[in-house]
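Kindly inspect both lines:
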Amino acid sequence: MNITSEQPQRRRLNPWRVIGWGGAIALILAPLVAMQFTNEVDWDETDFIVATIIFGIVGGLIELAVRLSSNWYFRIGAMFAVLAGLMVVWANLAVGMIGNEDNPVNLWFGAVLFIAIVGSIASHFRASILAPAMFLAGTLQIAIGTFAGILGTDMRGGRFTIILSVTWFIASLLFWCARQSRNAKA
């Protein structure tokens, strides 16, 4: 009788996951450390909770992208799209992208996030549809920044939003490259 002992296989820690989640934790804890040395940083419990939720969502979306595709163009494109979404949310929550956080123009950036999120879900995360969705998000980002500049609303914020749109365009380009590389293999 041949008896084999089945030992559970140990899963190796992925260093990228450790760096990613460790970096998120470090970013969340950085204001806590800064508050010990300066009065310029003044976070309360709500700020830490919101930051934890935001970084948890960002990390979860990056994990999802890595699991959805082994294509590096897709993965990096997803990271750029998630980064762009993070910057839109963070800038609007912190100080407002146009003017201050109370400026109603900042609400328009919800449409940029809506396009990116709905485009992602409706495409079932297919690069062929993600590319134009991210391009549309970047185009809307530029349109809002340009319109805010025409209205005479804090042009510095208008410039920031136009620069931020480049992140959406890079995501779009990377999704397009993912689709092209997949088609080349077929």
